[in-house]
């Protein structure tokens, strides 16, 4: 998927494009309402979205 297309799909679920970039670049965590919207609209399992990220 092209990055611009991903941003356009995620904007209604996460917020403005700068917020989407922050989430995708792990500068800001997902909030509970964001997790609920991603789960409801895209079918992403909530467990995956809630899981802590592993730092390398």
UniProtKB/TrEMBL annotation:
Single GO term (MF): DNA binding
Keyword DNA-binding applies: yes
Keywords of this entry: DNA-binding
Protein's UniProt name: DNA-binding protein
Organism name: Thiocapsa imhoffii
């Amino acid at each position: 998927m092209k990055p611009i297309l991903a941003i356009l799909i995620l904007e209604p679920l996460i917020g403005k494009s700068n917020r989407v970039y922050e989430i995708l670049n792990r500068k800001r965590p997902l909030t509970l309402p964001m997790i609920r919207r991603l789960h409801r609209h895209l079918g992403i399992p909530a467990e995956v979205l809630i899981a802590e990220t592993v730092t390398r």
